[in-house]
Design brief:
This protein is α/β, with parallel strands linked by helices. The chain is built from four helices and four strands.
């Protein structure tokens, strides 16, 4: 099984990078893991709705370059799941022939509707 994690923005704090590295090391026993930290579009201090929509579309173009297999956008509108439920969904993806699961975390303004529509599943992401 291959797990892809696409994130808009970069981890800046050392302790978060260290924790992420530890989880990647642990996952290495069970799957191939790839992390893609993509650049967040810069917005003005008080962006208009139109500016936000354009930024999300630019971010969506970056995301589509790395998204493969079963795509799972993590968004506030999604369904919150327990760890066992998530594990079951990932296992069933493998059984159904999907060798890659891609999780996508958007910027502070969320994800473009096109990315949400790509999702085989949509989970709630707690921030």
């Amino acid at each position: 099984m291959n797990i892809n994690l696409i994130v808009i923005g970069k981890l800046k704090e050392d302790y978060l990078r260290s924790a992420c590295g530890e989880y990647i090391k642990r996952l290495g026993r069970y799957c191939t893991f790839e992390l893609h930290e993509l650049d967040e579009c810069r917005l003005s201090d008080d962006p208009s709705e139109k500016e936000i929509v354009l930024a999300l579309k630019k971010e969506a173009e970056q995301i589509k370059k790395y998204a493969k297999g079963m795509t799972v956008p993590l968004c506030i509108e999604g369904k919150q799941m327990t760890s066992p439920e998530l594990s079951e969904k990932i296992s069933s993806a493998g059984v159904s022939g999907q060798s890659t699961v891609t999780f996508i975390i958007g910027s502070s303004h969320g994800l473009d509707p096109e990315i949400k529509a790509m999702g085989a599943l949509s989970f709630q992401c707690r921030r």
